Amino acid sequence: MTEPPRPPGEPDPNDPTRPFNPYAANDPTSGSTPPPYTPPPGYGPPPGYQQPGYQQQPPPGYQPGYQGYGGPTQDDRTWILVAHFGGAAGAFLGGGLSGWIAPLISLLAKGNQSPSVRAESVKALNFQITWAIATLIGWVTSCIGIGFIIIAAAALIAIIFGIIAGVKASNNEPYDYPMSLKLIK
Question: Which topology term describes how it sits in the membrane (predicted)?
């Protein structure tokens, strides 16, 4: 049996003048490959180990959400945006008092069907109710002059953070409102 021709410039592996290579198994010109590594018995991952980077199957009855497998559907994302941007728009149009209406509508319309819509609507609703109460306190104290500053600050906070939450939701990222009371669970 004859050996196939070698490309020009490649040394002959059977040449006796060739220097000794103690790592011949790793030498691609030697014609042999090292055997695959097998760990000794008793080494390796424990039973039931899930290699990082691989997703496990969701448990039975699991519904997708932000931290889940797949995330919210397009319809869910629309209702989440209604909750956040609608809260900001309501706070703007209602002088800080009516920002809670859109998150409440979103919660009642889709909250029982989608856990991600419910979670985001509850966050928006709690935040907008908190700042509607602050605005109401501003209206009550407006007779002493400081109330108008409270009204303006509360309305601005409700609008700005509602827009920030809406932008985060449009990027499919959950957002936790700062300075919010947990009135609705």
Answer: Multi-pass membrane protein
CA dist 173 and 66 (Å) reads: 7
Average pLDDT, the chain: 76
Report which of residues 39 and 88 the model is more confident about. 88
Burial class of residue 109 in the structure, from the number of CB atoms within 10 Å of its CB (0-12 exposed, 13-18 middle, 19+ buried)? middle
Q: Which two tokens stand for residue 169?
A: 């939701």
Does a structural domain hold residue 41? Answer: no
Q: Residue 150: which domain range? A: 74-170
**Number of other residues whose CB lies within 10 A of the CB of residue 156:** 14
176 found inside a domain = no
Task: State how far the Cα of 72 lies from the Cα of 161, in Å rounded to an integer.
Answer: 22
Q: What per-residue string of b and e applies to 50-76 under the rule 16 or more CB within 10 Å gives b?
A: eeeeeeeeeeeeeebbbeeeeebeeeb
| pTM: predicted TM-score of the whole model, two decimal places | 0.58
